[in-house]
Amino acid sequence: xxxxxxxxxxxxxxxxxxxxxxxxxxxxxxxxxxxxxxxxxxxxxxxxxxxxxxxxxxxxxxxxxxxxxxxxxxxxxxxxxxxxxxxxxxxxxxxxxxxxxxxxxxxxxxxxxxxxxxxxxxxxxxxxxxxxxxxxxxxxxxxxxxxxxxxxxxxxxxxxxxxxxxxxxxxxxxxxxxxxxxxxxxxxxxxxxxxxxxx
Length: 199
Prior knowledge:
By secondary structure, the protein is of the alpha+beta class. It has six helices and six strands. The protein has helices spanning 34-46, 119-134, 137-145, 154-162, 167-175, 178-196; strands spanning 9-17, 26-31, 50-55, 68-81, 84-101, 107-112. Strands 1-3-4-5-6 form a five-stranded mixed barrel.
């Protein structure tokens, strides 16, 4: 994994229980924890990114987080109740955590990770996604309604973010390069289809 500490930056951390945000995809989340709300408010005040990190179920504490997450911009934040806010995030790029400070509100020193070129593997992955969506019209409608970037990988990243797979598998997809992600999601979708159509 290519990381350059010289490119590092400090960003507030938004832990997302069992949720991964992928580059080029968008996500709406409801935040109730004061520390998570503080991270959103810092991003809103500074106009800078925050780091979305998937917090797995059964995590031993607030610092028990993966080393790879997604730098995100805060598109909108709305107060639903005094301790409940809805935030809309846009995934920008994957990032590697170099260090993590804080006990409740966390700040990470991160460096961006290159996604690499997925040109050869992208086509087969999108074909596998089309096959899967052909038999899942409700999911197709849902994905069509999701905001995404114009990047070619956005469909693959949306699939990684929303398909019915375990949170740990989703995190492994996020840790993979774009080419590896295409290969894995393509194989995974075809395996899901075979399982669903098995007698």
